[in-house]
Design goal:
- The chain is of the alpha/beta class and about 230 residues long.
- Helices cover about 40% and strands about 20% of the residues.
- The protein is built from 8 helices and 7 strands, in the order H-H-H-E-H-E-H-E-H-E-H-E-H-E-E.
- It is globular and about 45 Å long.
């Protein structure tokens, strides 16, 4: 379950250590789950992203939240806890082991009523969702980001925020494709396409933040945003 990219941050290691060790830790049982996951090398969002998400959710106070990529249920629980009273999280995952772990996390935290876990392929579940969502967090297969983007934008309300994790592929997204291992070239090409779209689309406002392996914050500026795929 080790995620190699978690151990190749895109900023100086000394700064990463400072961000992870000196910023306020998550309290209570959720903090214990975070600690256990980090000790076991289970892939969850790094602490600098945790703190950033806590701050962001506190500012925008979303009520209807969608997550693509549940993993062990840590980030969905974090969002449920810090989004404010009355917030509800819908989260999607297709891996049986992650679904079991997430259900255990929710039971342990007692937050089952705040979180709806949808089991299956995101591509199959998207058409069943109507939204609108105030906040969407996408942390799934990186090669799927460009494919999932149109559906995320359809479901996001105008003025809502789409937060996308792990966009820099440990910084290699800027390298020439000839230097990328063949097994990673599809991810490389699709991440570059994703970044180009979110950085240049006239109906999106995007900020890229070097937290962990990179975070994109995208605001939808029109009621309908059309993404035209390249051939």
């Amino acid at each position: 379950m080790r995620n190699e990219m978690m151990h190749r941050p895109v900023v100086k290691p000394e700064l990463v250590s400072y961000l992870r060790e000196e910023q306020k830790q998550v309290p209570g049982e959720l903090g214990q789950i975070q600690k256990e996951a980090n000790e076991r090398g289970v892939p969850i969002i790094p602490h600098e992203t945790v703190v950033f998400m806590q701050f962001l959710l506190g500012q925008i106070q979303p009520k209807n939240i969608l997550e693509i990529g549940t993993a062990i249920g840590f980030s969905s629980s974090l969002m449920a806890q810090y989004a404010g009273e009355g917030a509800h999280v819908t989260t999607v995952d297709r891996f049986d082991v992650m679904i079991r772990n997430a259900k255990e996390t929710y039971k342990r935290l007692g937050n089952e009523e705040q979180i709806t876990l949808l089991e299956g392929q995101a591509a199959d579940i998207f058409p069943t969702l109507t939204g609108p969502y105030d906040f969407i967090f996408m942390d799934s297969a990186k090669s799927k980001y460009i494919e999932f983007l149109p559906e995320c934008l359809r479901l996001l309300r105008k003025g809502g925020v789409l937060m996308v994790d792990d966009i820099f592929q440990a910084g290699t997204v800027l390298d020439p494709i000839e230097e990328i291992p063949r097994s990673q070239r599809t991810i490389h090409r699709k991440l570059k396409r994703f970044l180009k779209v979110i950085n240049t689309h006239p109906d999106l406002t995007t900020s890229l933040v070097p937290l962990g392996d990179g975070v994109a914050l995208i605001t939808k500026e029109a009621d309908e945003v059309i993404i035209v795929e390249e051939d």
